[in-house]
Amino acid sequence: MNPIVKSFQFGQHTITLETGVIARQADAAVLASMGDTSVLVTVVAKKQPKPGQDFFPLTVNYQEKTYAAGRIPGGFFKREGRPSEGETLTSRLIDRPIRPLFPEGFTNEVQVIATVVSVQPEIQPDIISIIATSAALAISGIPFSGPLGAARVGYVNSQYVLNPSETELKDSKLDLVVAGTANAVLMVESEAGVLSEEVMLGAVVFGHDQMQTVINAINEFAAEAAKPVWNWVAPVKNATVTSKIAELATAPVGEAYRITEKAKRYEAIGAIKAEVFAKIKAELAEGEGFNETEANEIFHNLESQIVRSRIIKGEPRIDGRDNEMIRALSVMTGLLPRTHGSALFTRGETQALVTCTLGTARDAQTVDDLLSEKTDNFLFHYNFPPYSVGETGMVGSPKRREIGHGRLAKRGVAAVMPDFNDFPYTVRMVSEITESNGSSSMASVCGSSLALMDAGVPIKASVAGIAMGLVKEGNDFVVLSDILGDEDHLGDMDFKVAGTTEGITALQMDIKIEGITREIMQIALKQAKAARIHILNVMDQAISTHREELSE
User: Which residues pair with 195 in a beta bridge?
Assistant: First the structure.
């Protein structure tokens, strides 16, 4: 065994990356430590993709072992079971910044497993898990445009704090995680105590500047430990099929993307695709072949080009709006008579039915994680049934996406909740997404604010949320307010902001490309503030303060 070790200082902590001793049959394995918190990250990729696969099957599993904290699991079986909500959220936190760095067309299965093997109570394992994943991918030889770094940023006494401890976070008005490459921010996840746009943007920039230390260290580590890079070449698309699809589909697809109703638009596009594919199959010479998976990707790329070019040219969006216009809003409260509080918030074709239920301190949830046992008196559950998008599907336990969206919505509202000493009730919010066409988590924030007031909960201020998007071609870019599902899918950024009239309570950002500048983020935050205030004005017309008496 020939261990390769790299140590460096990152803020107040020493980080150590080590490979070559543990898990040597994986494509890459890195044992990373920050203080006494250690995470083992392994990466394994299949050498060949499955035939006909049209997506990138990346899975990230983050798991906490109780032995890491010197504890034995509870329960009858005395071993770790299904992932906790915290583990699921950290899995998503690792997945989101690494996914855009794999090359387009790469469809080999990749599995990342991050196992917490030692934990120091003051140092959370999530940041070192992202760093270890970046290091493992950097030395694996798998096609990957990294490395990336990560940092947690706090805000204490009007000063940014790099990787604050658990104790420091209790006094911090901000808990922000940022990840990115040397040149670009790729992911932001944060909760804030009503902070200004300038402070939030400054935190993102501060975190990105500080993480350069990590990126440089991983580059040095990889120079010594990296395996040979795979000889992978992106598949070449069939030129005949590409030109035929462009010739036959450009005009009708362009017309279809002027249909404002999502269901009718999808129906029209499906019919166009079926007709175009049938014509091409009939015209192709014997032996030329027609690969349905490849043709679907070419067709999707054409859709993307049409929508994006219109936006860049300043033409109306898919549903006819301009770049800053918010969809039609509808607000109802008190519509479910036997609930403590209820609201129906509708924005265009996105709708959330949100309820508020009050309980006693005995109804609080006990959260038993590696660091400590905590009591949570504010619960938030988000449900996304298949009928919300006009589909059939499995109904049951919440999926990763539902857990993530619920946590984001909870972060958006948490800053305005009354202190438990002043309002000694357990509060449970449930958001049922009854229609979805973009930004359902932000609709949940709006609906929650309304339902809390309807229940008589003395929240400090109304809260609203909005999702922003981006289309960038070269030096030209357009920031979009209140994005549709298609604009999220075909665009370059998903930028969600929740807050009050006074400031931001939660910010989540996922970026698919490099080149997002400070200017772009400033414009997005400015447009988001205008949109947020517009929505709050509409909400206040329905209910502007909490009811005087609690619901029975």
Answer: 504
